[in-house]
Amino acid sequence: MVDATASWTCHLRPHHCHGCAQYAKHTSYAKPRYGPTLNAHTVPTVHANASPWEAGSSLFRASSLSDWLRPEAAAFPGLHLPRRPSWPNYQVEIDQVQGDFRAEGDFGALETTVSKVEGGSGWDFEQAADDLLGRAKLPQDLLSIIKDDICQFGSTVASLCPWSKSFIVKLELMGEDSCPRWHMDSYCGRGIVTYNLAGTEYATDDIVDFWELEHCGNNDCIIKDKSKIRQVNVGDLLFMKGKNFPGGRGLVHRSPDVQYQNGAVLNRLVLKVDVP
Ligand SMILES: [Fe+2]
Questions:
Q1: InterPro entries from the xrefs (predicted)?
Q2: How far is the CA of 273 from the centre of ligand 1 (A)?
């Protein structure tokens, strides 16, 4: 039986990496019962990218969503649009809707499939937004921002993936059930925005041990240089290619560590636009 709280070092492979399979299969990673204490109305500090065109970056950094459709963006496993949040930290309000979201399903997500526009060739993200957000009891200004994101960000994701037969929009609360293991998604792609706490972490290929990524479950084995781990900010728009993105390579990423306050988990509110 593997002790999930142990600190793993995988110097030999594959025989001495026996604990990793358990890590890959379960979500019981080593995590503190009481993590960092945050003031619920303190804007968190995150380490964003150092420069717009950093050598070896896995992200194409844009100044508008339309830039993501430029030919030079196609070679990158991730597309990024930095954005400073225009909304306050709604941690308290987000934690308060935890019960409503949990009632929707196992993973605490409101979810809807986007339909084709009637009589047109595009996708009706506005209808999807109305369907989804009518079920979310969150502050009105935050709902308006999320609706704009679903419509504009969602439409851009659809333009990036014109071959896709469907898109799924999810508004999700991510607490202790989030998955902090480094991975590439197993589908075509995902657009993601985080509205509080901390954004998605990602890694450039040069610091990833891809054998460990595929065969081992231990984060300490996968990342060769932790000082080079990157993280997008709260509010940023991010598109991550998955393993099945046509002709592309996926972005290696993870959810940030779960945060606690006075022993209670703090939830992240996350919008996802999935390309199956
Ligand atoms: Fe993922």
A1: DUF1826 (IPR014955)
A2: 12
Domain spans of the chain? Answer: 20-275
Ligand 1 center–CA 120 separation, angstroms: 32
Q: How would DSSP label each residue in 40-90?
A: TTSPPP----SSTT-TT-SEEE-SSGGGGGSGGGGG-SEEEE-----S---
- For the segment 74-83, what is each residue's pLDDT rounded down to a tens digit? 999 999 999 9
Here the tokens at position 232 are 């997008």
DSSP strand E in the chain: where?
59-61, 78-81, 109-113, 168-174, 189-194, 201-203, 230-231, 237-241, 252-254, 259-261, 264-266, 268-275
**Distance of CA 117 from the midpoint of ligand 1 (Å):** 28
Contacts for 121 with CB less than 8 Å, ≥ 6 apart: none
Q: What are phi and psi of 274, to 5 degrees?
A: -95, 140
Number of continuous H segments (helices) and E segments (strands) in the chain: 8, 12
Q: What is the pLDDT of residues 149-177, one digit of tens each?
A: 999 999 999 999 999 999 999 999 999 88
pLDDT single digits (tens) 179-220: 789 999 999 999 999 999 999 999 999 999 999 998 876 898
What is the Å distance from ligand 1's center to 190 Cα?
8
Is pLDDT of 238 > 80? yes
Distance 243 CA to ligand 1 centre (A): 11
Residue 252 CA, ligand 1 centroid: distance in Å: 8
Residue 260: HSE in the Cβ half-sphere, 13 Å Cα cutoff: 10
